[in-house]
Design a protein that fits this description.
The structure is a homodimer of 404-residue chains. With 404 residues, chain A is α/β, with parallel strands linked by helices. Helices cover 39% and strands 13% of the residues of chain A.
């Protein structure tokens, strides 16, 4: 018989998952409750309220999808997209491609708008594309960890309303780590995951939606067979292609009706509840500043080491940094040594960036001076061993000067 | 700011979730690992191997779907069903209706074969229906907690092969609690959840599939955009309508290729790993016997109290028992009192059984003499308070005599 899991102590400085806040891990040991226990229903309500704070929204429907971040992306898209609908996806990295592919599977007519990796879209480019393509839905990432870029979103909601489109934002990589104003920016649906800036484990995906989105979803509502109440009527829109991701049903489950759907993932809800509590206790502004500072310190350190940063620095996310692998250095060998000998994980990359850059996260619980310091010191050691000329000690000095 | 969750100590004797084994809760506090960390990949491999033991199979593809039990049902159905396919669903409770509804959303032509609630199908009825309808897929529950019935399955796989149908079994309610022989019974795809007889929290769904199912799924394989390798070819079947539940992709993620898909829900994987370890450490036969004994004791106790059991006792599941609410007793008031004053949860019921029966679980960690005893004692107290004539002490005596 194999032993129980007993993971080594890693410092996870990749693009996520990162180390969970110990307080989050602690609540995960709490005893389970039945899904209709009044105490558990109260925790669900509290989770809704807490995530309203995190999403900066007053949306009634603020809930958890029981799966990883990708589950909420699919729940949003499959619940909003009716086969044949036009969907515009601004693609500035891998997670744009993902939304293209999910939207296609939902039967949408998709237009992918692409920009070079390492750049983002100018607002007028998006406005023009929306005006021309007239999509029902625009689906965009806020931050894309594959390129480390963050797309400015403050005007996009306005463009969408002017052109009668719904705006879905995938904030998996940014929620809790940089400013995201669901209501002020007129974002109709936003979803995320716990394992990035929220400092929790993957497996629960917060989602919020407003009344514009609700109207589309409720028109497609179909009650589960065997649960229909006398006289209850379904919507006249086409049935949502998924039962598990049917947001109309998930809303009924989260509402005071408490209509049975899935069995809420008890322990993951405890974790999500604690993640939001911790972020709000710190305060959103402080959390954003902490991420920005850690990022700035990391960038200063990498630059002092003589390494070159990847992508448009004006639009880099504050929680993940791309850095070119120096000429003559085997990027995967460096990562392996960092992991095996120093217990530090940094990220590799995908697609056109594969083998060209490393991605280093400074997010959630790990957006801390000591985590940045430790990572820079170990990277310096490993690169020096690989015969790269690195000014010893300069990286940490530069990073700490940001904190001073 | 709300406080961290701090759940009361409930004894969960409903149809699930039940109290998690403390050892499972304990591993959930373990530090996270990156999804491609060799140590984490090893835990995934171990989880596969452990669930092969639990499912009694040699299937290479034995993995976890990241969601609650329903997520794995949908993953199986959406990956197997191509629009227009014929699907036969023997319905003997609510979870049969659920499979009808999911299969319809997948675009299937569904035939629902119904039997009275509280009964199961004779093997020849199923054989005849398969011969006549010629489905591509038969989707059936092993046990349906809504009726407490378990459908005998030992011949069904054979009927399916004779008629060139694939057999999917939803073993959410039974895996680990009663015998289920994936290979010996020729079950092509089987899925479950942790929150019933496996003694874990909901949120991870073990699934196994054999080569017959794999062939159908691989024909529909479509690599995610942005991840396709040079020269790689997709299948010539229709694209699976879900990305999150695309089992071809999930297999690639679990394989040695480790092709990126979702981010495996780290902590839920730790939990699933521990659940399987615990069941196999006890031994399947012993676990089944423990469930059978707890059920027998509960039944003896309820009968000694003068209560009437629900449904065909020859086919009752050993982990959940339906019992009629006595005339003149308000079933929901009894449940509320049990919960609020005695910290014990028992189950209500759905559809045609609503208000007519309670459902009492004896599953997983709670399939224990003391849990049965405590439940019977409290129920006796509450019923006596409600002026029902109950022979005091008889229930526990009868239950304990089963253990003696």
């Amino acid at each position: 018989m194999v032993e129980s899991v007993n993971p080594p102590h890693r410092l996870l400085m990749g693009p996520g998952p990162i180390n969970a806040d110990p307080r989050v891990l602690r609540v995960m040991g709490a005893p389970l409750l039945g899904q209709f226990d009044p105490v558990f229903r109260e925790y669900m309500k509290q989770a809704s309220a807490l995530y309203r704070g995190v999403f900066q929204t007053r949306n009634r429907w603020t809930l958890l999808v029981d799966g990883t971040a990708r589950a909420a992306i699919e729940a949003a898209l499959v619940s909003l997209i009716e086969p044949g609908d036009r969907v515009l996806v601004p693609v500035f990295g891998r997670f744009g491609h993902l939304k293209v592919e999910i939207a296609k599977r939902c039967g949408a007519e998709v237009r992918a708008l692409e920009t070079g990796w390492g750049t983002v879209f100018a607002p007028e480019t998006l406005e023009k594309a929306i005006r021309e393509f007239k999509p029902k839905l625009v689906a965009v990432s806020h931050g894309d960890t594959s390129t480390t870029m963050a797309q400015p979103l403050s005007e996009l909601g306005h463009f969408c309303r002017d052109n009668d489109a719904i705006l879905y934002v995938d904030a998996t990589a940014t929620l809790g780590g940089m400013d995201l104003r669901t209501d002020a920016w007129q974002l109709d649906v936003v979803s995320a995951g716990l394992q990035k800036c929220l400092g929790g484990p993957p497996g629960s995906a917060p989602l919020t939606l407003n009344e514009r989105a609700e109207k589309i979803i409720q028109r497609r509502k179909h009650t589960e067979e065997g649960l229909r109440e006398m006289g209850q009527r379904d919507g006249d829109g086409p049935v949502i292609r998924s039962n598990y991701f049917d947001l109309a049903m998930i809303m009924d489950y989260w509402s005071d009706k408490a209509l049975n759907h899935h069995t809420e993932a008890t322990t993951m809800l405890y974790a999500a509840h604690e993640c939001a509590r911790i972020v709000l206790e710190e305060g959103l502004e402080k959390a954003f500043a902490r991420h920005a500072r850690a990022s700035k310190a990391l960038v200063a350190g990498l630059s002092a080491m003589g390494l070159k940063l990847y992508g448009d620095q004006a639009h880099k996310m504050p929680n993940v940094t791309g850095v070119y692998i120096p000429q003559g250095i085997d990027g995967e060998a460096v990562r392996r040594t960092l992991l095996e000998q120093h217990n530090i994980e940094i990220g590799t990359s995908f697609g056109p960036l594969r083998g060209r850059i490393w991605r280093i996260g400074t997010m959630g619980y790990n957006a801390r001076a000591d985590a940045v310091e430790q990572t820079l010191r170990a990277l310096e050691t490993v690169l020096s061993q690989q015969k790269l000329k690195v000014p010893r000690g300069a990286a940490v000095d530069a990073a700490l000067s940001v904190y001073r």
